[in-house]
Amino acid sequence: MTTILKLVYQHNRLMTGTISKIPAVILLVFVCSCGNSSMRHGGLSFPVADSVPAGEAEKLSEEAVADIVQNIASPVEIASILQSMQVPFSAGYLAPTHEADRLTTNFQKAVMLGIYGADLGYLNIYEKTGNSVDVLATIKRLADGLRVGQYFDFETLKRLSVSKTNLDSLLFLSVNSYNQIDRYLRENNRGSISALMIAGVWIEGQYLATQVALTNNESILRDRIGEQKVIIGDLLMLLRPYRDSGEEYASLYSLMEGLSQKYAGVKVSYRLGEPETTEEDGRLVMVQHEESIVEMSDSQLAEIAEMSKEVRNKLISGN
Amino acid sequence: MKCRFFISLLALMLLTAAAEGQPATDDLVSSCVLSAGENTTYLKDFRVQLPKAATDAAPPVYKANMYLMKNMKYRFSICNAPGSRGELAITIYDQGKELISSYNSSTGKKYNSIDFICNKTGLYTLWYGFVNGEQGSGVGVVCMIR
């Protein structure tokens, strides 16, 4: 990575500094005016709350949620595997962006923010960055709608995408934006939105992997799909506290449960082995010889792929 | 009124200080990502700030659970914040069993990064702590090696 990354962060530094000072000014105004009855009765407007009451999240402690969500789904790992398998890029796998404007609820916005995040990772890994501006603009709109747009530096990302000069910086900035949004949401009692975004990233990655696997029998990809049996359980645990919060949440949870059931027959076993540690170029390198082994039939894969597609398409259609 | 003014001033000072702290951490994350080297893709960062270990107590650690996937190569880089007293170290655990650490307490040898060639998908625990339980701050960055 080059100086562009440094420049990106110099820019971000200014942005973050300015944005972070805004709450200080708001608080100052609020404290100074708290004795003013006219301000107290309607002078300040508060943001619309997410549809899940903060208390709901208490069913699963914040610490436990944080434990679960670290890298439960990365927007770039699946795309990276596909690229390493030399699977050609296909725009047909991307979620359409033209319907994003009609998304009205925070539920829809959060899920789609995750889905488009995975698509952005796919575009960037394949260096289809010129095509990503539309996805970037949609992500920006959704992030603004969820009041987390400050973590998504659209202009810099757009500039890096169009110029195609520094893929590493683009990847870093886009993944980092998602990490920052996730961190901010969890730290501000908006765990439901974070969980939905993570579910969106995961389901789009799952859709992409399973669709490719239907026509490509590489064991790396099949293993990756089969191993999601381990992860989907945690994803359900992440979504569980919110399932009674509304129809949309209940529907998503039910769909994910359905997908989890398709994994019932998939076996993940482990073969023991001692790790091997060496030193290379001043780095410590460990090769793990303990191994996870996936057993999944073609019919199980087909069912998982079908269900993954159904869940993903239902989320995209907003029904 | 005076009291309210001082509360406001204090709040402003505290929040401004917090606002200044964030970019410094962001800079450290970006420089740590740079130090991970070529052919890596950033996945995650962990911002660690820990107090000095109390006498006769276990050194404080920051723990994070992270899914690591089979057939992936990960690079765990650690970077100390400017002025940090302690030197950050990472230890990777798999179901409570220590796999590897960037600090060897018996030889005193320290590494700035660990490459982990993963063959078992699962939830791993990353322990970040400062050598000898010193007070310190720093960041841990996880990248995927392409």
Strand order of the largest sheet of chain B: 1-8-3-6
Oligomeric composition of the shown chains: heterodimer
Coarse morphology of chain B: globular
Please count the beta strands of chain B (DSSP E, at least 2 residues each).
Answer: 8
Mean pLDDT of chain A: 80
Strand content of chain A: 5-15%
Structural class of chain B: alpha+beta
**Number of helices in the DSSP assignment of chain B:** 1
Structural class based on helices, strands and sheet pairing of chain A: mainly alpha
Sheet with the most strands, sense and barrel status of chain A: 2 strands, antiparallel
Helix-strand pattern of chain B, N to C?
Answer: HEEEEEEEE
Low-confidence stretches of chain B: 1-21
Distance between the termini of chain A: 42 Å
Topology, pairings included?
The complex is a heterodimer of chains A (319) and B (146).
Chain A: H1 3-32, H2 37-40, H3 62-69, H4 77-84, H5 106-125, H6 133-145, H7 154-163, H8 167-187, H9 191-213, H10 219-239, H11 247-262, E1 267-271, E2 276-280, E3 283-287, E4 291-295, H12 298-317
Antiparallel strand pairs in A: 1-4, 2-3
Helix pairs in contact in A: 4-5, 5-6, 5-8, 5-9, 6-7, 8-9, 9-10, 9-12, 10-11, 11-12
Chain B: H1 2-35, E1 40-50, E2 61-68, E3 72-80, E4 88-94, E5 97-101, E6 113-118, E7 122-130, E8 136-145
Fill in the keyword field for this structure:
heterodimer; A: 319 residues; mainly alpha; two-stranded antiparallel ribbon; two-stranded antiparallel sheet; 12 helices; 4 strands; disordered N terminus; B: 146 residues; alpha+beta; Jelly Rolls; 4-stranded antiparallel beta sheet; 1 helix; 8 strands
Description:
The complex is a heterodimer of chains A (319) and B (146). Chain A is mainly α and 319 residues long. Chain A has one domain. In chain A, 61% of the residues lie in helices and 6% in strands. Chain A has helices at 3-32, 37-40, 62-69, 77-84, 106-125, 133-145, 154-163, 167-187, 191-213, 219-239, 247-262, 298-317; strands spanning 267-271, 276-280, 283-287, 291-295. In chain A, the strands form 2 sheets. In chain A, strands 1-4 form a two-stranded antiparallel ribbon. Chain A has a two-stranded antiparallel sheet with strand order 2-3. In chain A, β2 (276-280) and β3 form a beta hairpin. Chain A is globular, with a radius of gyration of 21 Å. The two termini of chain A are 42 Å apart. Chain B is of the alpha+beta class and 146 residues long. Helices cover 23% and strands 45% of the residues of chain B. Chain B contains 1 helix and 8 strands; from the N terminus they run αββββββββ. Chain B has one helix spanning 2-35; strands at 40-50, 61-68, 72-80, 88-94, 97-101, 113-118, 122-130, 136-145. In chain B, strands 1-8-3-6 form a 4-stranded antiparallel beta sheet. The N and C termini of chain B lie far apart (60 Å). The model of chain B is unreliable at 1-21 (pLDDT under 50). Chains A and B meet through α1, α4, α8, α10 and β3 of A and α1, β1, β2 and β6 of B.
